[in-house]
Amino acid sequence: MAEQSNDEKIRLLKERLEGCERVVALTGAGISAESGVPTFRGQDGLWRHYRATDLATPEAFAENSRLVWEFYNWRREVLAPLHPNPGHLALAAMESRFPHFTLITQNIDGLHQTAGSRKVIELHGNIWWVRCTGCGELTEDRRAPLPELPTCEACSALLRPHVVWFGEMLDPKILDQAYRALDTCQVMIVVGTSGVVQPAASMGATARRRGAFVAEINLEPTPYTDIYELSILGKSGEVLPLL
Ligand code: OAD
Fold first, then answer.
1. CA-closest candidate to residue 195, choices 174, 175, 217, 177
2. So where are the chain's domains?
3. Cβ–Cβ contacts within 10 Å for residue 43, how many?
4. Fold exhibited by the domain 1-37+83-124+170-243
5. Which of 49, 83, 88, 124 is catalytic?
6. Whose CA is nearest to atom 25 of ligand 1?
7. Tens digits of per-residue pLDDT, 25-80?
8. What's the per-residue H, E or C state across 35-102?
9. Whose CA is nearest to atom 29 of ligand 1?
């Protein structure tokens, strides 16, 4: 059978979405790439230039909190002037189009919310929130950069970025929300993720097993492409608005 064209695949996905009640979108760094946010594993990906073990683990923070904060403050400064792109805006519009639309993201940049998405399941936290290592208090702080070693107003202990580091557990309540949506969704769209970091990587496969029609939008194939119904190769900022 001849390979379908992207136009044909987009038409098919639109048909699937027609009249759909339960839709899930899962996003990764690729959705924010067109806003200027660096991805992790592409040609200029963050993990090509920095070692995750030095900067994004609880051990690294315990050994050198100043260096870890320097990295997160730099990322805050990079993100502060950036805006959502048409991909984020299209997903925000989908929220009001379907009775049950769940947006699950691995991104910590907050751009989905800036684009107008109100319900966002953030698997890996949010860089604009800080958490106290002493009393656990969670607060939003959009200053960029924060002081070199920011401390808690309530108890003076060191603050940490409210993000999930390698070797840390994801919040079970947040994971539960995500899996409940995956259990019942009819269509799932997996956008701009390389599919190598679990548990997000296998969420598309989970939805597929539970009966959903799963489509991927990415610049290139991923380890999961073959098990999805559709793989649309292209920029999310161009493909998503067409849906
Ligand atoms: P990656 O950097 O691993 O993958 C980005 C994906 O986006 C790649 O598959 C690209 O092909 C694709 N891509 C790039 N630009 C795109 C565009 N304009 N349109 C569509 N696709 C595009 O990022 P993630 O999969 O999000 O975790 O990485 C997963 C996790 O690994 C992150 O959340 C982070 C990281 O380490 C933590 O920090 C815990």
1. 217
2. 1-37+83-124+170-243, 40-81+125-163
3. 6
4. Rossmann fold (3.40.50)
5. 124
6. 193
7. 999 999 999 999 999 887 788 888 888 888 999 999 999 999 999 999 999 999 99
8. CCCCCCCCCCCHHHHCCHHHHCCHHHHHHCHHHHHHHHHHHHHHHCCCCCCHHHHHHHHHHHHCCEEE
9. 197
Mind listing the pLDDT tens digit for each residue in 180-238? 999 999 999 999 999 999 999 999 999 999 999 999 999 999 999 999 999 999 999 99
Fold for the domain defined by 40-81+125-163: SIR2/SIRT2 'Small Domain' (3.30.1600)
**Distance (Å) from CA 123 to ligand 1 centroid:** 14
Tell me if 1-37+83-124+170-243 shares its fold with 40-81+125-163: no
Q: Respond yes or no: is residue 112 known to be catalytic.
A: no
Atom of ligand 1 nearest to the CA of 107: 33
Q: What is the pTM of this model?
A: 0.96
d(CA 136, CA 227): 41
Largest interatomic CA distance in the chain: 65
Residue 106 beta carbon below 6 angstroms from any ligand 1 atom:
yes
| Those residues with Cβ within 8 angstroms of residue 86's Cβ, 6 or more apart along the chain or in another chain | 34, 237, 238, 240, 241
